[in-house]
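Re: export button greyed out
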Amino acid sequence: AQSVSQHNHHVILSEAASLELGCNYSYGGTVNLFWYVQYPGQHLQLLLKYFSGDPLVKGIKGFEAEFIKSKFSFNLRKPSVQWSDTAEYFCAVNGKSSASKIIFGSGTRLSIRP
Amino acid sequence: DGGITQSPKYLFRKEGQNVTLSCEQNLNHDAMYWYRQDPGQGLRLIYYSQIVNDFQKGDIAEGYSVSREKKESFPLTVTSAQKNPTAFYLCASSFRDYQETQYFGPGTRLLVL
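Workaround output, generated via the alternate export path:
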C-alpha cells in the first residue's frame, strides 16, 4: 500500500537548535517527493520538492531535504531554527505519471521556544 | 493578486443538511483538488479534476459531490450521507496535473450543530 510516515507528531526545540524531521514512504516505482509547510494562520505552501537529479534539495528559508532511495526516506533539515519556523510540516509523495495522486503524511507540528 | 479563495471560513451544518464549500482560483490552472484535513491524519484526497466537466473520486469521496463547470471554480458539496463531516477542508490547484506544485487555499472549517 502507498503511504507516507512521519513518526514525529510534535517536536519542540529551542531557537538555534538543529532540526531534522523524519519522512519515510512506501510507493512503487520512481517517485517525486515534497515537503509542505503550514504556518499558523497561513495557507499550506510548498517548502521544497525533489523530482530528479541531486538528492540533496534546498528549499525556502534555509531548509533542505535529502532523498535516500535505499532507505525510502526524505528527511527535512535545518541547521539552526528560528521562532518563525513554528508550523506544521507535511511530507508527501507521488509517482511520475500525470494521474499519480499525491499521498500526504500525517504531519509534524514544530514548536520553537524563543 | 493571483491565488485560491475559499468561502466561507467557517460553516455550520445541521443534521440532514447539504452544504456547499466554494473554491475559486485565478491562476489559470487546469487541475483542482479537494482535501480533508483531520488532526493527526494529514490530508486525504476527496475529489480532483484535471479539466472542465471532468472529475475523479479520491480516497474518501463517499458523502461528497463536486462539479467543474468553469475552469476557475470547483465547489464541494458535503451531503447528508457524510456522517462525520466535521473537518478542515482545503482546496488546491496545479497548472496541469499532479506533477506540478499544488497551491492551496486558506481552508474552510466545517462544524456540525
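The longest strand of chain A covers residues 87-95. The button fix ships in the next patch.
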